[in-house]
Amino acid sequence: MKLKFGFAAALLAATFLSTAASAKTFVYCSEGSPEGFDPGLYTAGTTFDASAHPVYSRLLEFEPGTTNPVAGLAESWTVSEDGKEYVFKLRSGVKFQTTDFFTPTRELNADDVVFSIERQIKADHPWHQYVPGTSWEYAAGMGFPELIKSVEKVDDLTVKFVLNRAEAPFLANIAMPFASILSKEYADKLDAEGKREQLNQMPVGTGPFTFVGYQQDAVIRYKKNADYWGGAPKIDDLVFAITTDGAVRYQKLKAGECHLMPFPNAADVEAMKADPSLKVMEQEGLNVAYLAYNTTQAPFDKPEVRKALNKAINKKAIVDAVFQGMAAPAKNPIPPTMWSYNDKIEDDTYDLDAAKKMLEEAGVKDLSMKIWAMPVSRPYMLNARRAAEIMQDDFAKIGVKVEIVSYEWAEYLDRSKAKDRDGAAMLGWTGDNGDPDNFLDTLLGCEAVGGNNRAQWCNPEFDALVKKAKVTSDKAERTKLYEEAQVIFKREAPWATLDHSLSVVPMRKEVSGFVQSPLGDFTFENVDIAE
Fold first, then answer.
1. Contact by Cβ (8 Å): 84, 162
2. Is the pLDDT at 490 greater than 80, yes or no?
3. Is 475 a residue whose pLDDT tops 50?
4. What confidence category does residue 473 fall into, taking pLDDT thresholds of 50, 70 and 90?
5. Side-chain half-sphere of 459: how many Cα atoms within 13 Å?
6. Quick check: 396 and 300 in contact, CB under 8 A?
7. Is the pLDDT at 73 greater than 80, yes or no?
8. Are 320 and 498 in contact (CB under 8 A)?
9. What is the DSSP secondary-structure string of 255-306?
10. What value does the mean pLDDT of the chain take?
11. Model confidence band, residue 134 (pLDDT cutoffs 50, 70, 90)
């Protein structure tokens, strides 16, 4: 297929297509800009798609299309009987990428693993604060600094993790993007040159694609890594054409300016399915959208106020308007496709009269608040502005005045973490490893306050249950603990749970090899384009 080039794609024509007429260039119309290229520093899927998946690899990887951790940079591993020691045997012969700005002199070894993990968990590590204003949010949210006692190099191809306690989801956790393995040799070079920040701007890894360059908010360019340990990709060049508007992404897809796009507008899906030049994949998403109240700020520090507001939200109207049948109202903080989902819980009914009465009984009058609306489409919320407008109308009916605010995506993510943030922030989550812990502790645990826990909610009873589930190996017992935790969540209502959506991925019919991920990842190492 010969691509037609619009503005963003045209920027790449001279770079790629003039070099080799036979080169295969795959263009992905991504929905947003990455915050950076060091996966350990961030939590957003948009950033992981641009950094962790093309450039880096991890000790374990998720088997395509599943949530099963399988061998990655580690070809094998053993676990001690008490669950506190994990020994990983690394693959031999794994090469780091050679770029215009770095030429490695050695292959992957245990030093790289120790460096990649220790910098995230040790406050005194020389690379712990190399990017001002950022933090190792995911590692902290997963409790890694408290969990991991040490990361030890046994020999060049053997690494041992010693934990302070058993951790049931540990193998799944280290397969996640934040645990990507970086080159210590590259970091040492940058340190010697006084260019540390380049580690987050010009990445080097062992993944399927080598980073070429990034034009801010427009284009990211990669080329295939012919030395990739998993086998060289079939495409020669990968392009992320950053296109924030869903309708524009669709137009580019129809025009042949990109091969695949994420997060289509719900109103466009039927037309996409009817277009003979396109094909559409879909599956239930492992996700949830929510409105997180700041539970440390009055009057949202009162559960009865939060529950009153929840009863005023017409979730069905949001689902109908934003998703047009491609989502369902959410009642729990984990999706119904996930094990331990507590279906016995009853959702808050939409009842404006009851909501108004509950606010009056809580002594709340003339409430004004902000609803934060995301500026980008996400699988769990295709149009946050529209959803916010529906909630604004609903709240007005119970005497609550709402101002809708938003910011550029990276700023939105950063500002919404603030412990003194005003109002309620709309966000969501697509599971990163298929374990309930990745929702319940990562998003709602006490250790995640000031980070992924946008509700700033620390409930000791809830936290004790999810922490106990972490150290319990029996799945049936873990299920009971998570079911109890969901009851507490519903009683305390730190969020208004909004929806669980279908994941829909349209692409050109010439595309083959793309595997839809239940984790919401967009990866391209196996894709091909028919000539």
1. yes
2. yes
3. yes
4. confident
5. 25
6. no
7. yes
8. no
9. HTS-SB-SS--GGGHHHHHH-TTEEEEEEE-SEEEEEEE-TTSTTTTSHHHH
10. 94
11. confident
CA pair distance 113, 164, nearest whole angstrom: 19
- Label residues 340-375 b or e (16+ Cβ within 10 Å = b): bbbeeeeebebeeebbbebbeebebeebebbbbbbb
- 222 exposed, middle or buried (CB, 10 Å; 0-12, 13-18, 19+)? buried
Mean pLDDT of the 345-369 span: 97
Q: How far is CA 368 from the centre of its chain?
A: 31
Which residues on neighbouring strands pair with residue 250, listed in sequence order?
none
pTM for the complete prediction? 0.81
Give the span between the Cα atoms of 112 and 182, in whole angstroms: 6
Question: Which DSSP helix (H) or strand (E) runs through 508?
Answer: strand 495-508
Q: Which letter does DSSP use for residue 322 in this model?
A: I
Of the listed ranges 12-16, 37-41, 227-231, 307-311, the least confidently predicted one is 12-16
Tell me phi and psi for residue 372, to 5 degrees.
Answer: -85, 130
Residues 6+ apart with CB under 8 A from 512: 527, 528, 529, 530
- Report helix, strand or coil for 73: coil
Q: Tokens for 400?
A: 């609550």
d(CA 389, CA 395): 10
Report d(CA 453, CA 497) in Å as an integer: 14
Q: What was the pLDDT predicted at 22? A: 67
Closest CA to 519 of 434, 428, 438: 434
